[in-house]
Amino acid sequence: MSRKLKNMDKISKNSDYNELIERIGSVYNKAKNNVISAVNVEMLTAYWEIGKHTVEFEQKGKERAEYGSQLLLNISKDLKLRFGKGFSRSNLSYMRQFYIKYPKSETVSHKLTWSHYFELLKIEDDLTREFYQNQAISDNWTVRELKRQKKTGLFQRLALSQNKEKILELAKKGQIINSETDLTKDPYVFEFLGIPEKSEYSENDIEKQ
Questions:
Q1: Do 116 and 136 contact (CB within 8 A), yes or no?
Q2: Among 54, 202, 206, 188, residue whose Cα is nearest residue 114
């Protein structure tokens, strides 16, 4: 073994050096997580405001009524020409609903992602939606876990059960631990940032998994 390799091996076994690597790694991960968190905050804020502008336009008076259901189609067409596929009619419809269900921006939790709210907005009953939102926040649910708990009817099971603590305990056992990197695999993030989506991160693949 050359002197250079011996020196490198010696350094890598040094406790102070290993501590340095840990510190650098910690700084890097913290910065990365801050960036991910910032993207999520900006995305939620932007989509809430887009919903607000849409609803306010609709409510300006009878002269706007003529647009009807065509309004979102027109907005979608024009925005996709400028900004890309993130502005489908379906997405705009959910952004509009986002503002309607959360008219006060401070009630929107930045602990959840847009994908969480996308699933929550599919729940028509306000009480049921609030329950799943609160549980998703308190138990740190991933989007996949939120979908699973909705599908298995956690809220309904709790409402009918005499042993609510036991039901919640069983629900937590199926929880998938959230990872800071989950957000970077979210197809909505790719759309929001205008980044070409990698096939392995496509929404279709996530749904299949």
A1: yes
A2: 188
